[in-house]
Each structure stands twice: as C-alpha cells, then as structure tokens.
Write a structure and sequence with these properties.
By secondary structure, the protein is an alpha+beta fold. The protein is built from 19 helices and 11 strands. The strands form 4 sheets. Strands 1-2-7-4 form a 4-stranded mixed beta sheet. GO terms for molecular function: heme binding; iron ion binding; oxidoreductase activity, acting on paired donors, with incorporation or reduction of molecular oxygen, reduced flavin or flavoprotein as one donor, and incorporation of one atom of oxygen.
C-alpha cells in the first residue's frame, strides 16, 4: 500500500503539468476562436498580456484615442482586454445602426458587477422578460405622469439653491447635483421625502444607494475585485453587499406598504407615480410583475436615473460656465419666458428652446453614459460585407461617435446652434439616450428634470470655472470628472 501511495505521489507533478497544459490550450483555442470571429475587423495591435487596455483606458486620453481609432479603422475595431478576451468597439453610425437596431441583450460581462444591486431589471434582462416588462413600464413615463413631477423637481432644486447661497467657496458640482437627483427620484418613485440633500441626516436607504454607486466605480478600476469570490472578502466588498442588503430591505418594505395603501386609499386622492404603475400594470394575460421584478426595476431605475442625470446636469453647468455668452443667453431666455414666477409648470419648461439646445450640445460633447454594450444573438451582416458573428460582445462608444469628425463638423467646439430647429439631427448622430428598441426608457423623465434644474440654477447664479481645479472627463460607467467638477456659483 505504501509503495502504491509513493508511486501515485510521483505522478502528482505530472498531473499538475497536464492540467496546466490543458488550461493553456483551452485559452489558446479561445483566443484563436475570437481572432476568427473578428477577422473582418482590423484594429490596434494588442500587447500579448494586457491587450489594448493600457491605451484605451477610461481616462480622457483613452477616450480621445477611441475617437482617433474610429476614423482609422472604418467605424469598428477589436479591443483586447487581455490575451483571451476581446470585444468589438463600434464608433460609426453605419456600424452602430446595425448593432443597436435589434433587441440583443446587454453584455453580461460588462454589467455583471451591478447585478447584486439591480438584479434582473430592464438593464440586464433580455428576451421575453425584457420585452414584457418594458411594455408594462412604458406608461410610467407618459406625459400625464411626468407633468406631476415638475413641482417635485422645482422644490428639490430650491433646496440646492439655498445650500449654494450659503457658501462662498467653489462647489463640487457633481456631488451636490447627485444628491439633488437622488432626492427627486425618491419623491417621484416612492412619494418619499428622504431629506438626503441635508447630509447630516441622510436616510440609510439613500446612504446605501450613494455608497453602492461609489463602490461600483471603485470596483471597476480594480480587476482583482471583478471576481465575486475575492470581492466579498475585501473591505469594499463587505460594504457593498451590506449596502445592497439595506437597499433591498428598504425598497421591499416600501413596495409592501404601497400595496397596502392601494388597497385602502380613496381612488384619485393623490397623483399616480412610478411605483403605482409598476404594481398595477398587467400584461395581455392579466399578469402583473412579481415583487422581485418590481424591486429589480425600482433599483435599476434608481441606478440608471440619478447618476446619469447628475452627469448631464453637471457637465452642462460646466459648459455654461466655460462659455459665459451662452450662459447669459440662457438666463435671458429664462427671464423672458418665466419672469418672476415661483410656481413653474409643464408648459413653462417647454418654452425654453435655447436652453435645451445648450443641454443637448453638452450631452453631445460629454455623453453621460460614454459606452454601452450588447452581445449578438445572431449574425449581423454589415452593408460593406463585414460579418459580426453571433455571440460576439460589442461596445458602442457614444462619446467617440458624437465627437467623430465624419459625423460632426468641428466636433471639439461647443456650439448649441447644432440643435436649432433648422438643423435636423438624426438618431444616428446624437444618441446620448442610445437608440433602437433598448434605448433609455427614462429619457423624457430625465429631460423633464433637466429642463427644470438648469434654468433654476442659471436664474439664481452666475457660474464660473474654478481655474485652480480644472475638470478632466473620465469614463466610469457614467462620465465623471477625475478630480471633481468645481464651479464658482455667485448668487444673482
């Protein structure tokens, strides 16, 4: 017996070597399969180990390099994320049109880090579930519902304005605006006043949403934390999962309480909101969403809605501060259309044509969601004969497309007149809210909020850049500023 054991022990190194060889061969086969799948698409030469990740990072230079490659490689090129993993980056309308025109699911690899928080909501779901829930949720963004939110956005904006009036120092705009959009969304989604802009008394749910948003950004920048097993033992991982528990516990209770209220309240006693629609919607078979589905959609919208809108608002204020002539023109338009009114209506916000032009031009230059991704369910044949095979992961650089000189003349110049009524901008040129069947369902919700907040700020403050702390765009799920986004807000 001892002899047999010793004999087996001698072969252990052999088994280990064979196991390693098998794994390496599998990785080699995976690389060759990806090279065959992407053979129609030349691109920048990858490093043997880290691929293209050092040149196509999320920092400003990396994003500009994507713009450069958009032109060089005819609208689409492979991006290698290591020796055995790659996706196809698409950056030209002629290619993007075919990538986004279908209902292909989001690329699970890119979004999986958020699944413990947002579950299987619209962002991550696919197939029949996505199609059904998208149809059930669409009425939540009808104009009749959005009209009721104007006062909520207005009142939340007044809280921020009072905070800014009390300081003489430059404000870190993104932080304050993010709290404002969180505050608004809690009121719109749940009918709940969180008081989160008063940072000394922040509600645990709001703190959880705020923490998870920050922790996801940190996780993206650390490849070792992408592995769920490793991440849950890290300090940030423990905070992340604890915050998810708090969020889910609170949103579950709010859903339960709302269901009880709907059973007992007098019909028409209050305005219908997002949560009412989620609970009451029924499909063609008479079935509604489960509690888990409702919770996933609430958590998804909290993620997709507050940070991306905060990015849009912050970069728009930045551009108005950078271009005082456009800022003043917006201010004059607000004075002319709103006067000294204290109560702003749906009709009022839709009178501000020039201000909306400035918003859209800012979103063109500083796309709030710089990159989106898909995974092909079937082959896509492009008009030029190139084939994107089924199963290929695809990225769309909205940031690069909207700065592509083949698409926009002088794309690095901030020029709101691009969006005047005389200029017809197609969905393939401007896609800050994506396009196709899986475009942003909350687009009108976001625009309604923006059309309240930007005018409120410019009629109360003169905005200037802080020369000591210049902004530097950085792609971190949404477009942030690497060192913060500081503005001087002088009360008018």
């Amino acid at each position: 017996m001892a002899t047999l054991t010793l004999t087996l022990l001698k072969f252990i190194p052999v088994f280990i070597i064979l196991f390693i060889i098998k794994k390496l061969y599998g990785l080699y086969q995976r690389r060759k399969a990806l090279q065959r799948a992407l053979k129609d698409f030349p691109g920048p030469a990858p490093h043997w180990l880290w691929g293209n990740m050092k040149e196509l990072t999320g920092d400003y230079q990396g994003m500009l390099r994507t713009v450069e490659y958009a032109k060089k490689y005819n609208g689409a090129f492979p991006v290698w994320m290591g020796p055995t993993d790659a996706f196809l980056m698409t950056v030209n309308p002629s290619t993007v049109k075919y990538v986004l025109s279908g209902t292909d699911p989001k690329d699970e690899f890119s979004y999986a880090l958020m699944r413990p928080w947002i579950g299987d909501g619209l962002l991550l779901s696919g197939g029949k579930k996505w199609d059904r829930n998208r149809r059930l949720m669409t009425p939540a963004f009808h104009q009749d519902i959005l009209k009721n939110y104007v006062k909520i956005f207005y009142d939340s904006s007044k809280i921020l304005i009072e905070k800014w009036r009390e300081t003489t120092e430059p404000v870190e705009t993104f932080h304050h605006i993010s709290l404002l959009t969180l505050d608004s969304m809690m009121k719109c989604l749940f009918g709940y006043n969180s008081d989160c802009q008063n940072e000394s008394t922040r509600h645990p749910y709001i703190q959880g949403v705020y923490d998870v948003s920050e922790l996801i950004v940190k996780r993206i920048t650390n490849p070792f934390h992408h592995n769920p097993f490793i991440y849950k033992f890290t300090e940030n991982g423990k905070k992340f999962y604890k915050a998810c528990e708090v969020i889910h516990e609170h949103s579950s209770k709010i859903i339960s309480d709302r269901k009880q209220l709907l059973r007992t309240e007098e019909k028409g006693s209050r305005n219908t909101d997002f949560l009412d629609i989620l609970i009451n919607s029924r499909d063609e078979d008479g079935n509604g969403m489960s509690d888990t589905e409702i919770q996933d959609e609430v958590d998804t919208f909290m993620f997709e809605g507050h940070d991306s809108t905060a990015s849009t608002l912050s970069w728009c204020l930045y551009n108005l501060a950078k271009h005082p002539e456009y800022q003043e023109r917006c201010r004059e338009e607000v004075k002319e259309k709103w006067g000294n009114k204290d109560e702003i209506t749906w009709e009022d916000i839709n009178k501000l044509e020039y201000t909306l032009m400035c918003v859209k031009e800012s979103m063109r230059m500083f796309a709030p969601v710089p990159n989106i991704s898909r995974c092909t369910e079937k082959d896509i044949l492009l008009p030029d004969g190139r084939l994107i095979p089924a199963g290929v992961r695809m990225g769309v650089s909205i940031y690069a497309l909207q700065r592509n000189p083949d698409v926009w003349k002088d794309p690095e110049i901030y020029d709101p007149s691009r969006f005047s009524s005389e200029n017809k901008v197609s969905a393939l040129q401007f896609m800050a809210f994506s396009m196709g069947p899986r475009n942003c369902i909350g687009m009108q919700f976001a625009l309604t909020q923006i059309k309240v907040i930007i005018p409120m700020i410019v009629r109360n403050f003169h905005l200037d850049l802080d020369p000591e702390r210049p902004a530097e765009p950085e792609s971190m799920l949404i477009l942030r500023s690497k060192n913060g986004l500081y503005l001087k807000a002088t009360p008018i």
